[in-house]
Specification:
single chain; mainly alpha; 6 helices; 0% strand; globular
Length: 139
């Protein structure tokens, strides 16, 4: 496994990393209302999360986002690892898009105006999968 990111991998890692790191830092000190909203949306899609405390959930989500963002931004983190973490994160977001009522147009994958904010995260999955596939395809 290659340790340093290749130069051509840096722009997508930077774009995704800054975006996710900012999101995680924004949730770090979320108030009760924000935590309830974040947790409520996640628990609606993923019922196993309902039993978790909303503030703890939001804190953990913040920590995970900060870790994924940092892994993408630090070039010594192997692209395979950073890409796998990004892919897992993006898959969770896209699961919310696919499972939450009102996010997609009836009988379609096309987003509604409410779903556009989550559907756009498909680019995160594309970046993560690209990093993983490139590293797995190397001799």
């Amino acid at each position: 496994m290659r340790i340093l990111a290749r130069p051509h991998q840096l722009p997508p890692r930077l774009a995704a990393g800054v975006f996710i790191l900012n999101s995680g830092l924004g949730k770090r000190k979320a108030d009760k209302e924000t935590a309830a909203t974040v947790h409520g949306m996640a628990a609606t899609t993923y019922p196993f999360l309902r039993s978790q405390d909303s503030e703890q959930f939001t804190r953990r989500l913040s920590q995970f986002e900060i870790a994924v963002g940092a892994a993408l931004l630090i070039p010594v983190v192997p692209s395979l690892i950073a890409g796998a973490a990004l892919s897992a994160f993006a898959a969770g977001l896209l699961g919310m898009y696919l499972k939450t009522p009102g996010m997609r147009q009836e009988g379609s994958l096309r987003p509604t105006p409410q779903g556009t904010a989550i559907a756009k995260d498909v680019w995160l999955l594309g970046i993560g999968a690209g990093l993983v596939l490139e590293e797995c395809g190397r001799d």
